[in-house]
Amino acid sequence: MEPRHIAILGASGSIGQSTLAVARAHPTRLRVSGLAARANWEALVAPAKEFHVKVIAITDPQAAAAARASGKFAQGVRILEGIEGVTEVACLPEVQTVVLAIVGTAGLHPTLAAIRAGKTIALASKEILVLAGNTVTSLAREKGVQLLPVDSEHNALHQLLRGKRSDEISRLILTASGGPFRTLPLEKLSDVTPEDALRHPNWSMGPKITIDSATMANKGLEIIEARWLFDLPESRIDVAIHPQSIVHAMVALSDGTFQAQLSSPSMAYPIQDCLLAPERPACPAPRLDFSQTLNLELSPPDMKRYPMLNLARQAAKSGGTLPAIFNAANEVAVTAFLARRLRFTDISRIVEEVLSASGSATESLNSVLAADTEARRMAELKVL
């Protein structure tokens, strides 16, 4: 059997590194043909040599120039730059699956181009469907392209829903660890530091998504994503706090029973499923040990502790450009918090104020990008 050729956009981040680990574990099944990163070109040197990658892209032009001048890449490696270069990597003729792990709006154009080119999309960037869920899913249907979710919760749902009819599904349940402040007294939340918020109890992730986990903005974004991935309204998508991060999602069936997907908290499992399903070879990740006692707690989220969850639901329910506005305002607020320009509790305040001051337009590529830009401007003014 010929190996599946993949391109990894966002190869220097945690998802990209986990994808490389999966490819490393299955050299006869997977071949890495393209790599892309925003600016950290040094992180691509070793995997480019290891996997004999001939085409890489660096979004930042100065970083791309530094990579070319470094002499660290093998002779014959093409180093592209800008979103155009990332898009070219996504559309390489030999590539069959594109792992999309670029944070923010930068991944939207490469994703749409890859769909038009007929590539399978392994989607790890929440922003793509939050910004343009209707645009992306409609184009994927038109082109007959699969959108495979990499997020552990969405991938768990994807596995649980295989072979089920829509009339068998009552509700979807996304689980959330609750972050590092799940039991912290509410009056102390305004005092937490970026260092406190970056200490996630279960997952090793980048700074932005780790803060989103602490505020539960990530789960709000996942509700919006799930609405597009599984064609269900947000009112039928629930969230449960599950501190152990072992149950990744559940499906409530129409007969009143539940089905759940369990694994140790490692992104290697959902990535491997996206790249190799329906095969299930051994995964390079820790396994659950049933010789030890496993505690599986499940409880509803405290909305006073996690106001971002309600704000995301409101945006999802209203639709249009409001999900893009929610995402943009949150990104600005999180960046300001990490730079110590805001208190932790100010993140939700700024997002709420930007949403309240914003109108909603019908979703189109132009309207969501315009809404994203305006929401960022408004949020920055509120940070000052």
Descriptive report:
Helices cover 45% and strands 15% of the residues. It has 384 residues and is an alpha/beta fold. It has 2 domains: 146 residues, 3-Layer(aba) Sandwich (Rossmann fold), CATH 3.40.50; 165 residues, no CATH class. It has a 7-stranded parallel sheet, with helices on both faces. It has a 4-stranded mixed sheet with strand order 9-8-10-11, with helices on one face. The mean pLDDT is 94.
SSE topology:
Layout (H helix, E strand, L loop, with lengths): L3 E6 L4 H12 L4 E8 L4 H9 L4 E4 L2 H10 L7 E4 H9 L6 E4 L7 H9 L3 E4 L2 H18 L3 E3 L2 H10 L7 E8 L17 H4 L9 H9 L1 H13 L7 E5 L5 E7 L4 E5 L5 H9 L30 H12 L3 H17 L7 H12 L7 H19 L1
Helix pairs in contact: 4-5, 5-6, 6-10, 6-13, 9-13, 10-12, 12-13, 12-14, 13-14, 13-15, 14-15
- Helix/strand-derived category reads alpha/beta
> What is the N-to-C succession of helices and strands?
EHEHEHEHEHEHEHEHHHEEEHHHHH
As a percent range, the share of helical residues equals 40-55%
From the spread of the alpha carbons, the general shape counts as globular
Taking the sheet with the most strands, its summary is: 7 strands, parallel
Ends distance? 58 Å
* Oligomer classification: single chain
How many distinct domains?
A: 2
Structure annotation, total helices: 15
**Strand order in space, largest sheet:** 4-3-2-1-5-6-7
Strand proportion, as a percent range, falls in 15-25%
- Ranges where pLDDT stays below 50 over 5 or more residues in a row are none
What is the gyration radius calculated from CA atoms? 20 Å
Mean pLDDT: 94
Per DSSP E runs of 2 or more residues, the count of β-strands stands at: 11
